[in-house]
Every structure is written in C-alpha cells, then in structure tokens.
Specification:
The chain is α+β, with helices and mostly antiparallel strands. The protein has a single domain (2-63), classed as Alpha-Beta Plaits (2-Layer Sandwich), CATH 3.30.70. The protein contains two helices and five strands. The strands form two sheets. It has a three-stranded antiparallel β-sheet, with helices on one face. A two-stranded antiparallel sheet has the order 2-3. β4 (57-60) and β5 form a beta hairpin. The two termini are 19 Å apart. The protein binds iron/sulfur cluster. Iron/sulfur cluster binds at residues 5, 10-16, 24, 32, 52-54, 56-57.
Length: 72
C-alpha cells in the first residue's frame, strides 16, 4: 500500500506509531513520517490510519491507486 501522512493535519499524538512502529515515526518536529510503508501488515497499517485522531493518514492500493482509507 501507498502510505501518506498529511503533515499539516498530524498533531503528533503518536497513536500510529503505537499501532505500527516500523512504518511510522515522529520526526524532530514531532510530526509523523513514513519510514517503511512495507514495515507491517496492511491490517496493522489500516488500524494505525483508523486510530489517528486527526485523520492524517491516507492509504492507497499500490498499482491501482484505489483509495483504501479514508473512504466515504
Ligand atoms: S496518530 Fe495521526 S496525529 Fe498522531 S502522530 Fe500519527 S499521524 Fe500524527
């Protein structure tokens, strides 16, 4: 999956890092960044996206570009 953090929305709650520590980390500004989009299972990455309080994480299927999260 393609994993994107909208850094204008992230407020550094680090919930995503608890859910998926090999995929996300906080940078020096305490904003999340993607360090390895393949560092965890898709299920765990989806959980990380769902628990982000500011909905800063979006996910797309590799190749098709189909939106996985958030969906309307
Ligand atoms: S859970 Fe959301 S707000 Fe918190 S660090 Fe991760 S991306 Fe940022």
């Amino acid at each position: 999956m393609k994993v994107t953090v909208d850094r204008t929305k992230c407020e550094g709650y680090a919930k995503c890092i608890q859910a998926s520590p090999k995929v996300f980390k906080l940078d020096a500004k305490m904003i999340a960044e993607v360090i390895d989009p393949k560092g965890d299972t898709d299920e765990k990455i989806l959980l990380a996206a769902k628990i982000c309080p500011t909905k800063a994480i979006s996910l797309e299927e590799e190749g098709t570009g189909k939106r996985v999260f958030p969906v309307d």
